[in-house]
Amino acid sequence: MANVYEMSFGKIYPLLVKKAVRKGRTVAEVNQVITWMTGYSAEEIEKCAKDEISYADFFNRAPEMNPDRSLITGVVCKVRVETIEDPLMQDIRRLDKLIDELAKGRPMEKILRHTVSAGRNEV
């Protein structure tokens, strides 16, 4: 099986969408979560999926990784996100965690974490 870093974002993105849509969420909400974390616009996300860039390159080329992503904690695939040492794998698992929360029906304002001191009103 291919290393997750080498896998095409175009293969992973539909799986993220399917997981959320199956539970009554929308593609727009999936894109909103990805945009919050990476800074890509919805159009850029779609383009990355079509261009077949690797999952690693998707994260490495992200316009602006959200510093508040460090607030994402919990367990994904039996691994505690905040204890993952490899920063790229940690970001991959953080996105998995956000999509899991979306699929479980968590409100968007809780999914898109932000530091109170930052004074941002992101949605």
UniProtKB/TrEMBL annotation:
Entry's InterPro entries? SP1917_dom_sf, UCP033199
Q: What is this protein called?
A: DUF2200 domain-containing protein
* Organism field: Candidatus Fusicatenibacter merdavium
Please spell out the taxonomic lineage of the organism that makes this protein.
Answer: Bacteria, Bacillati, Bacillota, Clostridia, Lachnospirales
